[in-house]
Amino acid sequence: MKTLLRAIVPALAVLVISSCTTTNLVQTWRDPNYRAQPVSRIFIIGVMPNDMYRVQFENGLAQALLAKGFQASTSAGAFPPGQLDKEKVKQYVADNKVDLVIVQRLTKKTTEEYVPPSMTYVPAAPYYGGYYGAYGYGYGAVYSPGYISEQTNVLAETNVYSTHAIPESLVWSGQSNTFNVQDAQSAAQSLSSQLVADLVRAQILVK
Fold this sequence. Notes:
By secondary structure, the chain is an alpha/beta fold.
């Protein structure tokens, strides 16, 4: 069991949480024939081209699972960077008696919106300290220049497989949208927190 617990890559940076980053589950599916059973060990596989982001999102999910009392390991912690070898992954899952395998695919979507300048009327005050004081006060108070507002969203598809069936079976699937992402760490925590909460409600994560 120590091997499983050690297979989580140390965090790359101090966790920075943005209160503006939120995750919504757009849609979910649960196998109606799946019978809930106790889960102890979970293996996480992130599918994305950037290895640094892969580490951050896998770690975020692993930490959220550990906080709920489940033992979790990550592909980045168990295997070297690059494409995973299918047979080695299957052997690792069998050797560590993994109950669930979570596969997460991520894409990033950036949108830009032009916010036009605005003008707000401010009634004249009785005294500004001369005409230049009135000019300076009024200019700063009434005019707001236009700007470009950029928002980055993280779209995720998460699939959960049970290893107790042969071949392993898909028991839960969900698509999510994480809004207003400030950095990878905050997105990973927001997504992981929402995902784990829903998996508990769906009785996929059962102690």
